């Protein structure tokens, strides 16, 4: 299988409107099997305030994937130990974008000295993280407006950076 190289870059405040839209589209179209319409709407509404959403993206290391002027995905690493956001545009789903983003953030976390990384994964993204070796530690329910959203906290032990480098080189 050929691995496609995705161009990743840091978040810029000017990305906020496009990432708000990508966030909403990813939830509305990709989470339909896991969450009902009211749950998806409540989740999308967490990013309605542009300034607050921009601050959330800027509060950690947010990487953005895009090509030819199209935003394809983004992910945020907080405190070098928490994968806070991971969203892919529906038109680019299942093309390795989420994998590229998580790979990069895991490497960065390890390079910055973190021995583990955790995520509160949506039911939609849960299989991705399980396939990557994340272990579920607890099930969560979050109250948003008039609905409850469930997710799962998972954790993965990270290889020391020296081991990751030797895997890449060999």
Structural notes for this entry:
With 170 residues, this protein is α+β, with helices and mostly antiparallel strands. Helix 1 runs antiparallel to helix 2. It starts with 7 loop residues before the first strand and ends with a helix. It is globular, with a radius of gyration of 16 Å. The model has no long low-confidence stretch (mean pLDDT 91). 37% of the residues lie in helices and 32% in strands. Strands 1-2-3-4-5-7-6 form a 7-stranded mixed sheet. It has a single domain, classed as 3-Layer(aba) Sandwich (Aminopeptidase). The protein contains 6 helices and 7 strands; from the N terminus they run E-H-H-H-E-E-E-H-E-H-E-E-H. Helix 4 links the parallel strand 4 and strand 5.
The helix/strand class is alpha+beta
- What is the CATH homology-level superfamily? Gcn5-related N-acetyltransferase (GNAT)
Number of domains: 1
Predict the CATH topology. Answer: Aminopeptidase
Q: How widely separated are the two ends?
A: 18 Å
